[in-house]
């Protein structure tokens, strides 16, 4: 195929050239009805290209195959058999993928360091999760992805499991051994779904970790807005092989997805694919070089340490994304939350995740020497400022293994059944009815259906006073918890 083409962008240009007059949504009619105060902030372009797929971008019967062609170009570019665009984030893609591989009340192997959208998929899909636990590193207080042998053991104990869901890379940039896990899954005849939300750039540079489709995964979903140039919410599914039927995946996406997918998002996806095919190598080369330089410079700052390649070894991570820079600030005597807040307020610099001892930043193809220079300089400033920061209450992280709770009830029943709200100190021994996910990274500490232990409660209680954000729990302050009614 001609990778220099960009069918969605070309069709938007044709719409503009034709000067179509629309009597269909969106009601702003390519910006004509926009309040000037909105225009002043957002500009014209966002509205002039915000058009319908049907009877605008394409004809009524979609005979131009505009979006289909863009998807085919993306599939060819990354070596997938099929690619589908989605405009509801990987949060929806992961749900569609899980519905496609595991019918209600079947068993599904899930890496327990999953994002909350995966646990939501388990709840909505009504499946029994077989949690494959990550390796909790007690020194770093970090979970490393499960390994092929962990998956083999889970499949041996649960031969009726329908599929496996693996997360790689994590929000901390650590990668799983996707090749090894897919081999084990395929030996047992089950498909592997990889949530590669953070790995949209991997297919376009061989110096980055291997990506799922190239090493045997059956379905890979990725958020192109996270590390690529997609607009927020844009996500892509890739399929390889015949273990998951494209029509099944498409039907499941159709069950959940919007009937008004944003053409703007499709356009940005289309442009990103063309850019990466044509210029990905040099752009990502430059990003990698800058990230390596930033890593060295930050590691040399007293009080900061960078999560480096030392974590790439058996029992830990199988690989690491050099573009995700995780800065440990523990030696400063302050938390990652405080460093993130200071940087936002005083340096107007926004970081990615922050936890009780770290912050993470991402370098992408979009950075230049000025942006990364400012990053390093701002971290030097926050180190100096940290001496005057208030000493906050500490988070009490759980011991290794303490997060491996027993699922005693179908998560769907726990979530939708009768529940009650109890003070946190009374929740020990009860069954969780809600998700409780410190955010970011949004990995649930508690999932519906899990038996709650006092150690986990102690950890959760210590979080909010230290600055931890728990947006999904009914009571984010963790004074109460929603549990299954007895
Ligand atoms: C591992 C993982 N999967 C899925 C998602 C959801 O992606 P999105 O924000 O595109 O809905 C996230 C979001 O942070 C994530 O970290």
From TrEMBL:
| Domain Orn/Lys/Arg decarboxylases family 1 pyridoxal-P attachment site residues, every copy | 7-303
Record key words, sorted: Aminotransferase, Decarboxylase, Lyase, Pyridoxal phosphate, Transferase
Known cofactor(s):
pyridoxal 5'-phosphate
What positions does the domain Orn/Lys/Arg decarboxylase C-terminal occupy? Answer: 407-461
Q: Which Pfam families match?
A: OKR_DC_1 (PF01276), OKR_DC_1_C (PF03711)
- Please, which domain of life does this record's source organism belong to? Bacteria
| InterPro entries, per database record | Orn/Lys/Arg_deCO2ase_major_dom (IPR000310), Orn_Lys_Arg_decarboxylase-I (IPR052357), Prn/Lys/Arg_de-COase_C (IPR008286), Prn/Lys/Arg_de-COase_C_sf (IPR036633), PyrdxlP-dep_Trfase (IPR015424), PyrdxlP-dep_Trfase_major (IPR015421)
Q: What GO MF terms are annotated? A: transaminase activity
Q: Which family does it belong to?
A: Belongs to the Orn/Lys/Arg decarboxylase class-I family.
**What name is this protein filed under?**
Aminotransferase class I/II-fold pyridoxal phosphate-dependent enzyme
């Amino acid at each position: 195929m001609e990778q220099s083409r960009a069918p969605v962008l070309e069709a938007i240009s044709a719409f503009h050239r034709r000067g179509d007059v629309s009597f269909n949504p969106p009601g702003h009619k390519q910006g004509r009805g926009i309040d000037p105060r909105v225009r002043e902030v957002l500009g014209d372009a966002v509205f002039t290209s915000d058009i319908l797929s049907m009877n605008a971008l394409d004809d009524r019967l979609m005979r131009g195959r505009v979006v289909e062609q863009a998807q085919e170009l993306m599939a060819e570019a990354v070596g997938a058999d099929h690619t589908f665009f989605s405009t509801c984030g990987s949060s929806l893609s992961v749900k569609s993928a899980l519905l496609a591989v595991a019918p209600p009340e079947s068993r599904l192997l899930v890496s327990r360091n999953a994002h909350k959208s995966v646990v939501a998929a388990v709840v909505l899909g009504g499946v029994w999760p077989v949690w494959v636990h990550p390796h909790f590193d007690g020194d770093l207080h970090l979970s490393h992805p499960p390994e092929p042998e962990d998956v083999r053991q889970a499949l041996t104990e649960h031969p009726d499991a329908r599929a496996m869901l693996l997360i790689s890379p994590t929000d901390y940039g650590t990668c799983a051994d996707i090749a090894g896990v897919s081999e084990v899954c395929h030996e047992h005849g089950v498909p592997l779904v990889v949530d590669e939300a953070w790995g949209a750039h991997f297919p376009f540079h061989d110096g980055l970790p291997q990506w799922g489709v190239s090493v045997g995964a059956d379905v890979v979903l990725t958020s192109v807005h996270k590390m690529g140039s997609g607009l927020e919410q844009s996500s892509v599914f890739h399929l390889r092989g015949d273990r998951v039927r494209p029509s099944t995946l498409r039907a499941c996406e159709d069950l959940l997805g919007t009937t008004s997918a944003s053409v703007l998002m499709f356009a940005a996806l289309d442009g990103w694919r063309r850019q990466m095919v044509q210029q990905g190598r040099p752009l990502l080369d430059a990003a990698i070089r800058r990230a390596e330089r930033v890593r060295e410079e930050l590691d040399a700052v007293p009080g900061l340490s960078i999560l480096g390649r030392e974590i790439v070894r058996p029992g830990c991570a199988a690989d690491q994304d050099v573009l995700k820079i995780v800065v440990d600030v523990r030696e400063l005597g302050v938390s990652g939350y405080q460093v993130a807040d200071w940087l936002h307020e005083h340096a107007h610099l926004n970081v990615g995740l922050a936890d009780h001892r770290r912050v993470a930043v991402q370098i992408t193809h979009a950075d230049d020497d000025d942006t990364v220079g400012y990053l390093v300089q701002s971290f030097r400033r926050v180190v100096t400022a940290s001496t005057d920061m208030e000493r906050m209450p500490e988070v009490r992280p759980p011991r290794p293994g303490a997060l491996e709770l027993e699922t005693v009830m179908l998560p769907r029943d726990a979530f939708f059944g009768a529940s009650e709200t109890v003070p946190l100190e009374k929740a020990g021994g009860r069954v969780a009815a809600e998700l409780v996910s410190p955010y970011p990274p949004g990995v649930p500490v508690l999932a519906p259906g899990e038996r709650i232990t006092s150690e986990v409660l102690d950890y959760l209680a210590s979080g909010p006073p230290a600055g931890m954000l728990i947006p999904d729990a009914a009571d984010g302050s963790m004074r109460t918890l929603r549990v299954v009614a007895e």
